[in-house]
Design a protein that fits this description.
The protein is mainly α. The chain is 62% helix and 0% strand. The chain contains 4 helices and no strands.
Length: 151
Amino acid sequence: MDEIPRTPFDDYASRNLNGARGGRRVRGVRMQTLLRGASAVSFILAITSACAVIALDCIHVFGPDLLPWRLKSAFPLILIGIAYGCLQFTMPRSWKEFLLGLSVGVAFILWGAEQFVPIPALVPLIDDVVVFLFVLDLSVVISGSLKAKRH
């Protein structure tokens, strides 16, 4: 009986703990530790800043005169993209899985960075790239699920 995948990449049969067959292996304990630490710090900052954005928005809604400024939601997007991107370098995956995971991290970073782009004509292009990366990632996940054997 086939198990339901626990993560989007669990449906790849080639995955194993020592690195995928013909794929990439994770090397360098120090680099792994550094990247995992950067991922953890970015993750905590992303969650904290996302909560701060919501709290400050609530304050702004109920008392617009209390805060003359607003925190951009770009910060949690960029930080979670960095956290997920760093994590990709520490996990044993095939090149396909690695690149797809990295593309999701890049999509979040671009999504946040677009809020700082000074050229308004460039924003729709960045939006389209972000949408493409998200659609590509979910297409691979959906395709893998549709191809999986059903009992």
